[in-house]
Design brief:
Layout (H helix, E strand, L loop, with lengths): L2 H52 L1 E2 L5 E15 L25 E5 L4 E11 L2 E10 L18 E10 L3 E9 L27 E11 L3 E10 L24 E10 L6 E13 L5 E15 L3 E11 L7 H4 L10 E11 L5 E12 L18 E14 L2 E14 L2 E15 L1
Antiparallel strand pairs: 1-2, 2-3, 2-4, 2-18, 4-5, 5-6, 6-7, 7-8, 8-9, 9-10, 10-11, 11-12, 12-13, 13-14, 14-15, 15-16, 16-17, 17-18
């Protein structure tokens, strides 16, 4: 037998022995793959079943998300405030008949409900809509039971289209120049530091945002807003106010630097506001402000946020000037204010922090012709807050907040505290 023949026989024998081993290996590999595929299919089926049980769709088959917070607040007021459950400043008129000015109470009208719709891509951008509501729409100061009859109220509502570097928003949102919001579950109906530095009103507007960059982003924004003017005297809510009767929308612009994403997003911004209020004849009074805002996140645990402003006739942006637009002689009330808050969240369950707010109108803008202040004129308003929140799981929220108010009148400074405890359930 030649060497070539012997070599051929050896190769044939090796091949014959290798085929079963290779076949067995292929079979084992195929069985492993089938087992993994079956596990993946089972996981997918469970996820589909879970999603189907919780799925909400609109008539147009758009994706709809429902969220909210059932919130129960109990409070103790150390004196009479302008509003019992969510105060902004100490009331000038305290009870002098011998009955206590302190009071306790409870309310559920800060409960919130949100609906978000995401139809998908339209006009080359991502289309979405969001509606946030609470039940804080009762009339204040008429009767204490009005807090228990709590009609729904629109907080914010918008339709958005977002492209890679451009965004359009039409709806009701915070003023462009005051985008930051303090953390609080005691002050939701009127946000924390309202009347003491937080320009918080939710105003109908159209807003355009242009942004460049990825890790660090630079943006410029412009908006046209309903020219709100809110006098202290009651008037029919359906009547056009003097801001709307000016015939001009308020305008705002903001320049900002932004970095990070989601809960770790930080931003620093500077803004300008201009509006007009109608007067007799064809005259107008300017509502104007320069603002700065910031939200800085350190390590995803510590957040420092706040806002500051200087300007005049700012009640229509959210109780600026301590809700005083015009003085007794019709002069614009100039004011400066702002707030800052430090919030610390070392774990998902625990959160604590505190803050400070201040609004200081120019004293002489509040004077009468005889050089005195009218009754109830508010010269300064300062508020302090400290909060502690606990989320043990399942969406449950427990917490407490201490708030101190110092409101200056011509006769002196009135000081009072509020303690607010709350329990809620996120969904």
């Amino acid at each position: 037998m030649s060497m070539h023949t012997r070599l051929g026989l050896v190769l044939m024998l090796c091949a014959a022995a290798t085929v079963p081993l290779y076949a067995q290996s292929q079979q084992d590999s195929l069985e492993d793959r089938l087992e993994k595929a079956e596990e993946a299919i089972q996981r997918l089926q469970r996820e589909i079943e879970t999603e189907a049980q919780a799925k909400v769709q609109s008539r147009l088959q758009n994706r709809v998300e429902i969220s909210g917070l059932v919130l129960v607040n109990g409070f103790y007021d150390g004196a009479a405030f302008n509003n019992a459950d969510v105060p902004e400043w100490v009331a000038a008129a305290q009870d002098t008949t011998g009955r206590p000015n302190s009071r306790i109470g409870g309310a559920l009208r800060q409960t919130r409900l949100g609906i978000t719709v995401r139809p998908g891509r339209v006009l080359g951008g991502d289309l979405s809509a969001d509606l946030q509501m609470d039940f804080f729409g009762s009339e204040d100061g008429v009767d204490a039971t009005d807090r228990l009859v709590s009609p729904p109220r629109i907080r914010t509502a918008n339709v958005r289209i977002d492209w890679p570097h451009l965004g359009l928003l039409v709806g009701q949102e915070k003023a462009l120049v005051a985008p930051q919001s303090p953390v609080s579950f005691a002050a939701v109906g009127y946000p924390e530091f309202s009347g003491s530095g937080n320009l918080w009103y939710w105003i109908p507007q159209a807003r355009l945002t242009a942004e460049a960059g990825t890790s660090f982003r630079v943006g410029i924004q412009a908006a046209a807003l309903d020219p709100l003017w809110e006098p202290e005297a009651a008037y029919p809510s359906s009547a056009p106010d003097l801001g709307e009767r000016s015939g001009r929308p308020a305008v705002e612009g903001r320049l900002y630097l932004d970095w990070g994403n989601d809960e770790k997003e930080s931003t620093i911004g500077f803004g300008a506001h201009r509006g007009w209020i109608a007067t007799a004849g064809t005259g107008t009074i300017a509502s104007q402000a320069l603002t700065a805002d910031f939200r800085i996140v350190f390590g995803g645990i510590v957040t420092l946020s706040g806002s500051a402003f200087t300007g005049q006739v700012l009640n229509g942006l959210g109780d600026g000037g301590i809700a005083q637009d015009l003085g007794p002689l019709g002069q614009p009330v100039r004011t400066r204010g702002g707030w800052a808050q430090l919030d610390i969240r070392p774990t998902f369950a625990w959160e604590f922090g505190g803050g400070y707010g201040r609004d200081a109108p120019t004293d002489r803008d509040l004077l009468q012709s005889d050089g005195t202040y009218p009754a109830g004129a508010r010269l300064r308003n300062v508020s302090y807050e400290g909060h502690l929140h606990w989320r043990p799981g399942g969406g449950l929220l427990l917490g407490a907040e201490f708030r101190r108010f110092e409101t200056e009148f011509a006769a002196g400074v009135l000081k009072a505290n509020q303690i607010n405890g709350f329990m809620g359930l996120f969904f």
